[in-house]
Amino acid sequence: MLRSGKGSHIFSKAGKTSVKISPKIAKYSNFFTPQSIFMKIKRIPEKYHLGLKLFIELEDEVIEEILESFETNISPLLQIEEITHAVANQVTQLDVNQSEKIIAFLLSLSGLFNDSDFYPQEFVDSLLEFLRTSPEFCEKFDDFHLQRFSQRLLRVMEQGGVLAVLSKAANVIFEQERIFLKARVISDIRPIFDRDIEKGPDSATIIHTLKLEYRQANQSKEFFLALDSIDIKQIQEQLNRAEKKAELLRQLIQRANVTYMEIEE
C-alpha cells in the first residue's frame, strides 16, 4: 500500500520530492467495471461497498474533514496504510478500518475517472444512474443521500490532490503486461550417482530455483527458472548496474525540479 512519511499531513507539492508507491496500489486500479466506452457501470466489487456506504451516509462535517485532510501537505512518502492512519488521526469520528475503506473506495474511483474521457459531472452521473437502477443498491439510498453523494464526488473529482496524483502515478507505473510481485530462491543439493548406485552418490551439485510471482490480466501467476552459481552472479551484476543507473536518473529528475515517484515494497 501507499506509505506516507512521519507526520500528520498527506502530500507535498514541493519540488525535488520523492513519492514512493507500493505495487499493492495496483489492487485499487480496477474499481468499477465499465460496460462500454459510454461508461455505463455494471458492478461494484463487494470489497468497496462499505467505503461507498460510509461516503454516502457520513455527516457533512466528517466528509469535510476527510476532504480537507487530502489537501493538507505532508511528507511525500505515501503508502495507503499510513495515509489511512493519518486521516483517522485527523478525523476523530473515523476509526482506522473506516478510513481505509473510504480511501480505497475513493482511490479506485479516482483511477477509473482518470482513465476516462469524461468531465466530472458526466462521470458522477454515470455512477448515480447505476446506484439508482441496480437491484443491489436502489433501495439502500434515497434521493437525498444520492444527491449529497453526487456533490461529494464532484468535490473529489474536481479537487484532484493526493488521490488524483497517486492513481495517475499507479496507472503510469503499472501499465505493463506483467507486473512483478515477489521472488524467492530455493536452493537444493542434487546428488550425482555413478553407474553402481549401491555405492551411493559419487558427487553433488547445487541447483537454485528462482520462483517469480507476477500479475497479468489481474491474475497472480508464477514462473520458475533453474539457476546455477554463474547465473546468480550474472543476475547480481545486472541488478547492481540497474541500481547505479537508477541513481543517476533520480539525480537528473531532481535537477529538473520534478517530483520523483518510485515503487516501494
Describe the protein.
- By secondary structure, the chain is of the alpha+beta class.
- The protein contains 8 helices and 5 strands; from the N terminus they run E-H-H-H-H-H-H-H-E-E-E-H-E.
- The N and C termini lie close together (8 Å).
- The N terminus is likely disordered.
Which keywords apply here?
18% strand, 3-stranded antiparallel sheet, two-stranded parallel ribbon, alpha+beta, disordered N terminus, elongated, 265 residues, 8 helices
Query: Would you report the number of β strands?
Result: 5
Instruction: Describe the strand arrangement of the main beta sheet, using strand numbers.
Output: 2-3-4
> Can you count the helices?
8
- Element-by-element helix/strand order: EHHHHHHHEEEHE
Q: Which value, in Å, is the CA radius of gyration? A: 24 Å
In a few lines, what is going on in this structure?
With 265 residues, this protein is α+β, with helices and mostly antiparallel strands.
